[in-house]
Amino acid sequence: xxxxxxxxxxxxxxxxxxxxxxxxxxxxxxxxxxxxxxxxxxxxxxxxxxxxxxxxxxxxxxxxxxxxxxxxxxxxxxxxxxxxxxxxxxxxxxxxxxxxxxxxxxxxxxxxxxxxxxxxxxxxxxxxxxxxxxxxxxxxxxxxxxxxxxxxxxxxxxxxxxxxxxxxxxxxxxxxxxxxxxxxxxxxxxxxxxxxxxxxxxxxxxxxxxxxxxxxxxxxxxxxxxxxxxxxxxxxxxxxxxxxxxxxxxxxxxxxxxxxxxxxxxxxxx
Length: 270
Hints:
Blueprint: E1 2-8, E2 13-18, H1 32-36, E3 43-46, H2 51-58, E4 64-67, E5 78-82, H3 84-97, E6 102-106, H4 113-126, E7 133-137, H5 148-157, E8 164-167, H6 170-182, E9 192-194, E10 211-213, H7 216-232, E11 244-247, E12 250-252, H8 263-267
Helix pairs in contact: 3-4
């Protein structure tokens, strides 16, 4: 994982990323926070990591902010995230208005808590509309689908013919887009694809991806503000409970989504 270490300076703050030595990379070395604490004003924990790393930062006693999912409900650490449940409702509404009723949620590499949360939010949103159905797919890795045709065969054999794929992030969506085009399926004329995060690649593929823009830069800025506030709060506020801050993203509509097509005409030739 990556830990952002903040040194207090006069008049402001400097930030750097650190593992055992200062570098831009990820580590699960849970001894790292303890080794850095004497020279740190606070920790910002970014990206996927195991719970031991997060807990190791928390028990140092200095201000810590987690950007992303907490280890468990009511975990006692300040946390910055995005309003993903609301975003999933917006994605669902967009696709439902286009006439889609059969969906596949593509995790990419399985097991990431944020992607599981997005699946649950999307499933809850489409369940409010009669006649919808949802299936799941996972890949060996985000950019490696394996044999996509083979993955789809059990769904098609069960007479499930999707017209829209919603993906755990934009990288996964690009993989899905590539695999669909490899099978001769046109996007969005026959099948729609939606990503998540609005990474730069979302606007560089063809067709460009409809996606949720997640405010990543703003999350980092908010985390810094929280640490600053924790450092500067008066003694009477020192026992304030941990806070949760969810920033609001937005739907970016591009060319990878369109009105639902005749699904039988898409999948039966396969």
